Amino acid sequence: MSYPQVLFRRAAGAKSVKAGRRFLESALPEARQRDAGGDAPGMTYGAYLEALREALEKDGAALVREAVRTRLGDAAENSLEEIAVTPVKHGAFYHPARVDVKTGAGVCRFAANVAIAEPGLSCLAHETGVLRALEAFRPGPYAPKARGAALAEAAREDGTRQPVAVLLTDWFSGFHEFHLSGKTGAEEGLGVRIWDKGHTGRFLDPREEAELYWSMAFVLGYYYDLGTSGQVLAWHNAAGDFVVRAARGRVEARLVTARHYGPLAGGGDDAEEALFLGLMATLANGTLRLRLDRLDGVGELALAEARAVWPAVLGFFAGLARAFSETASGEPLNPFLKHLKEQTEEDWGECLEALLEACPDGSPDLPALRAGAPGHCRELGRALSRLPNTDRALNPGFFMLTKRT
Predict the structure, then answer these.
(1) DSSP string spanning 244-264?
(2) What average pLDDT does this structure show over 360-366?
(3) pTM
């Protein structure tokens, strides 16, 4: 059995280079951890990476071996040659890193979500369970698989030891973070900038932008459980929870995590009404929040242009239809779609208002969501009215963007 060397690297633009002494002795960013209500890490990059090394090497590199085995087969787990670890960003709860594992059978790339303080430690344990449950419920390629988890300790700057939790998941190669950004010159307004070259990447063109919102909504629809109103919750574009790949004329989105799963809303006098109200709430809330982001990832909260609503509606139903075609179960979509088309702008407004009223007090998202809700309800009604009435089975192709533009 081989024992791999673990290398520390740092990001350098689109590449990574060996982490030097100055980088390793520099402080891990703390501000976003404080904003999330947790303790300041008081930790250097070197201490963070040493803790990650401990987790990866623990029990004969059991975490890495199992992850590699599930990707490349039994032989690969015993031919590990090298593990390269590169910190990639710093979020409110986690400090993610890219983990490149070189084996005799090929190279595997994973994402390591690393929690070094509360509330991140508690959130990561819950998130691990959600990802595993999601994979068991609907094993599609649109969200990462939880490949394994481990615990370690890191040295704080005051000499104390800090618990560290690591969750190893899939890395979506070729996918990048993206954010709303202001356009200047002839193309004024907001567009979507893909961070394929850091914060200076290109803007998606109008067709690509529509396909992005279609694809994100498709993922949400795919993982929606029509029978229970269960859905992926607590995602946010500002956190980079969706990533995009725009290559060779095709745009695809993936979720990089799933923090919570459950119903958003329900109720009603009977089961059928409860299913419909859950679907209506999900469509209204999901398509609105798909438009929400922070400008350039860290600026003011803003909503994408109204043109995003039409592809988002199509994508959501395409995802539902795909899930039905794979599971051969669930209620037919036609009655629900027909009922949604009958809702007025006022109906959608009341639905969104009830959802926003249920949001936690002081949520920074609320002002932007409330301001955009009336216009969003109008666009929802227009989008649904564009879909034809039909009694034939609704398959994913019925909701393809190219057929409905």
Answers:
(1) EEEETTEEEEEES---EEEES
(2) 92
(3) 0.91
